[in-house]
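Hi there, hope your week has been kind to you so far. For a while now I've been wondering how a particular protein folds. I'm sending you its amino acid sequence along with the backbone structure tokens. Could you read through the record and tell me how the tokens relate to the sequence? Take your time with it, there's no hurry, and the full record follows here.
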Amino acid sequence: MRPIFLMLSSLILAAGCAQFPEVDAATDPEVANAPYPALVPVEAVLENEAPRLDETSEAGLEAQVNRLKRRASDLQNAPIE
């Protein structure tokens, strides 16, 4: 068991000596000098939008569920070529 432990620990230590590319060189200098984005009030971010569901949404969702179930059944019964 000792040789395995010694080998694994040496591999872990060797991985720590790897050289990584410079992250700062990957960014454009213009990004560092770019202005900060404008701050907006929280109320503007949290505004309630119109509901996306209405009275006819249930029928549309049920139709989509049935189509997906039918497609899943077709895929399960399809022969594998």
About this structure: The longest helix spans residues 57-77. The CA atoms of residues 6 and 36 lie 50 Å apart. The chain has four helices and no strands. The chain has a mean pLDDT of 83.
